[in-house]
Design goal:
Length: 456
Amino acid sequence: MFSDCCIWRKFLTFLIVVLSFTTSFAISVEDARHLWSRTGFNAALIDNYSDYSSRNQAVNEIVNAPLSFPSWGTLPEFDNNIYIKLRSKNTSKKDKRNIRKTTLKSDKKKIQSWWYRQILNSNNPLHEKMTVFWHKHFTSDLKTASPPFMLSQNKVFREYALTDFKSLLFAVMKNPAIHLYLGNQKNKKNKPNENLARELLELYTMGEGSHYSEEDVKGVAKALTGYRINYKDQNLVFKWNKHNSEPKTIFGQTGNYNLDDVLNIILEQPKVAEFIVIKLWHEFVSNSIPDNEKERLTSVFLDSDYDIKKLLVNMLNSPYFWAKDNRNNLVKSPFDLLTSTAFLLDTPNSDSIKLPALLAKAGQKLFYPPDVRGWRGGNNWLNAELIISRKQLLNRYLNKLIKSSKQENPDFVKDLNQKLNKKLQFFAIGQETPDQIKWPKNRLKFVLLNDYYHFK
């Protein structure tokens, strides 16, 4: 009998130790909120955060989540014959003006509304967040590239967003949008245009500094001659008779290089991995990266042959990511601000049509980056004018949402308050609405207009 008691006592002690060990590594609600705000408003983190046995498990499941889109998320369709007609010399100026006022204007709205619906209804928020990230990294816009070309580029970002940077770079550079945006069709073999070459080195792969020379820029520009756009098939074609076939020297290597050669030579430069590491660190962790962590993550990225997922897993599992000093220290972009609001309030799909116009007033409109450098981000979102416009954005958004929905449902505001429960309030601003605030609309505004809501 005594022996049986001892065995049970030992077993219970062992069980308590095991449970204590498991619990000590479980992700906390504060951890879940931090990871949730940085990786794209994942519903599973809110609903099931206590199911994750560790931070590592939560990170791995978010980064490796399967891509899945709703059945209604079919691609918008465009009549390419209209766009061919728009480029034709046989089309009168009057007809071209009419096309711009009707079809072009309508198609621009169509592609924007489509993307916002994808964003708000995707089962993989991180995937959409990375699609936006690459859109602002490899900038192009609807002013210089028509909706069919911008949709084609968006599909590239979507397909390669979480694969590897090498494949992404090749796919982007072989897509017409970026050649249209930077005027590479004007890059002639006897008169090279350096726009795309310079931005390829400075903005897309290596960053500013002394990593490359003017000779490198000139060599890359010559290698990018001969690439033209087939408007009928909407793809990029290479024409040997328009290509500069003389020897080109790029990073000390000489040869008759083309686009593929140039990209392979650039990807051999260690600075590329470091540059992408820094950009992703600024997006997910903080505005500055310690040298030792920069070196570690650069090695991880290079050793994995530019694997984006592997880099993100290492970055999000870094002690620096989870440090208290790196929580609530990044400013939400208008995109983050509005998409998090739509998520928290469970916005109906039909209302997504209003998002592009509201975002434009707050300084960010997808498919319309301000210039080749894209949106600057970070503390640039916090100048006096934008702070006011951000709060106006949320106030107008809430008012429009209530006004458009109260006709069908008089209790819409009360229903919103029930959706925005105490758990969601904590995930939004790190606190609950004080009990003394009674009116449902005021309780909603306490969360959405709270200063803490602007940070992630």
